[in-house]
Amino acid sequence: MQKNWSLVALSLLMSLVLTSACAQTEQEAALIKLVEPQLGDGVKVDSIKKSPYLGLYEVIAEGNIFYTDEKAQYLFVGNVMELKTHKNLTKAKIDALSVMKVANMPLELAIKQVKGNGKRVLAVFEDPNCGYCKRLRKELMKIDNITIYTFMYDILSDDSEVKSRNVWCSSDPGKAWNDWMLNGKVPAEASPKCMSNPHERILALGSRLHLSGTPAIFFEDGTRIPGFVEAAAIEDKLSKPK
Fold this sequence. Notes:
Radius of gyration: 24 Å
CATH class of the largest domain: Alpha Beta
Shape: globular
Structural class: alpha+beta
Number of domains: 2
Number of helices: 7
Mean pLDDT: 87
Largest sheet: 5 strands, mixed
Helix content: 25-40%
CATH superfamily of the largest domain: Glutaredoxin
CATH topology of the largest domain: Glutaredoxin
């Protein structure tokens, strides 16, 4: 008899847990329907979860974090700080969300260049009008046995997109990019027939990765180096065990 009561108690406990989980899921789904239309055209909510902060719900949308109340009447934008440790909890979460392995990036939007055996891989975000990007490109030329995916991240000047489009639409985008970045050779004007231009999609990717400047280097494991670095520093990172 005691064994039977134990089974009944366990069954009731599991039922309560499942009921609670379902209720929470339903509430999160309801919150998504309320919040999503308020975030702007085309913005999708990736997830909503109850946070440990004052009963607020954490909203993750396209790599950004917001907070809302249980009825989605208010939206809180800002950082949650832990006073005891002075840790920025929101930033820590955003940094974690911003980690993206090179293999998981939309590599069809990048210029692919292979040197040597190409076994080592990195991705770089560069603007055609970025002086530090041009210096970085010279450093990248010193590295062998590497595959470089270049995302033309046009954020610095009005004509950055024009230059990148001309490169993208050339017969050899890798050569055209290097000619411009290394030697200042202006790429030929793109044909009106060239309709392929990943500009907007690359901007969206950069926004999701919280890139605010160029250059930015991403390694296979998703770690990054913002700004200009010399070839030796890149080699050091590439040589470390994955």
